[in-house]
Each structure stands twice: as structure tokens, then as C-alpha cells.
Design a protein that fits this description.
CATH architecture: Beta Barrel
Number of domains: 1
Strand content: over 45%
Number of helices: 1
Largest sheet: 8 strands, antiparallel, barrel
Distance between the termini: 20 Å
Helix content: under 10%
CATH class: Mainly Beta
Shape: elongated
Radius of gyration: 15 Å
Order of helices and strands: HEEEEEEEE
CATH topology: Porin
Strand order of the largest sheet: 1-2-3-4-5-6-7-8
Length: about 140
């Protein structure tokens, strides 16, 4: 259903925009947002549910993209890395930092991306704990 919706929405768009909204699945699972403010730099955010910790997590990350390291015949396949923070709301307020690394496929002549991301993180409030999360997702750009 999601793929069909993205195909329909893409048919009405004149070209790739800087702002993307979509879904992220894994840990956490929810809504994803990304804004490219230059060719290689972006900010992303998510509001998502962590099934393992049973909390609502909100994160934002400053991202750097490396185009050209991975060549594909159509579209683009940059890898990216970033630095960001997160806050989780559950039984307690939990907050910390995150260091994601990912791979993003930008379809040629299209407004859709798909991505795979792994993020190492640390919580600093209320206790210090290390974790690793992974997710896949897709966004529609306008």
C-alpha cells in the first residue's frame, strides 16, 4: 500500500525537492523527515515508537553525504554519517546522542528515496547506557 501511494504521489511531482517525508521501520518505527540544505548536507528527524523500550522517541541528526564512493547505473547511492540527539518519552524521560551511518538510494528522475541506517547511541539522562538501533525507510520528496 505504501509503495502504491508513493508511486501515485510521484506522478504528480515536477522534480525532486529538498524536503522528504516518509516512514521508518525497525527500532524505532514511525515517521521520517529529511531536509537537504546543500548537495551534501541535510538534517533529518523522526517521531517513532521503540518496540523494545516501549517509548515514543524523537530524534534529529545533522548528516553529511558522500556521493561518488558507490557508483550505480541509475540514480545515486550516497552513504552518510551524522551527529544528533534524541529524547524518549515513556515511564521516564530519557535523552542522549546518536551517531548514524547509512546508505540511501535516490531514484533517478524520481522523488523517492529508500535508506538503511544503523545508529550507535548513548543515553545520558537519567542513566548512561550504550545502544545500537537499525532501521530501513522510504521518503517522498517535494
Amino acid at each position: 500500500m505504501t509503495a502504491l501511494l508513493m508511486i501515485v504521489l510521484t506522478s504528480f511531482s515536477p522534480g525532486r525537492g529538498d524536503t522528504g517525508i516518509g516512514l521508518i521501520a525497525g527500532n524505532p518505527t514511525g515517521l521520517s523527515y529529511k531536509y537537504f540544505f546543500s548537495t551534501t548536507k541535510a538534517v533529518d528527524a523522526a517521531a517513532a515508537w521503540s518496540f523494545s523500550d516501549e517509548w515514543l522517541m524523537v530524534h534529529s541528526t545533522y548528516l553529511w553525504h558522500n556521493f561518488g564512493d558507490v557508483n550505480v547505473s541509475k540514480g545515486q547511492l550516497p552513504w552518510y554519517y551524522g551527529l544528533g540527539g534524541w529524547v524518549a518519552f515513556g515511564d521516564d524521560l530519557v535523552a542522549g546522542g546518536r551517531l548514524p551511518v547509512g546508505l540511501e538510494y535516490l531514484f533517478a528522475n524520481n522523488d523517492i528515496d529508500i535508506f538503511l541506517e544503523v545508529a550507535a547511541g548513548i543515553s545520558v539522562i537519567p542513566d548512561t547506557e550504550f545502544y545500537v538501533d537499525a532501521a530501513i525507510g522510504a521518503r517522498f520528496f517535494f
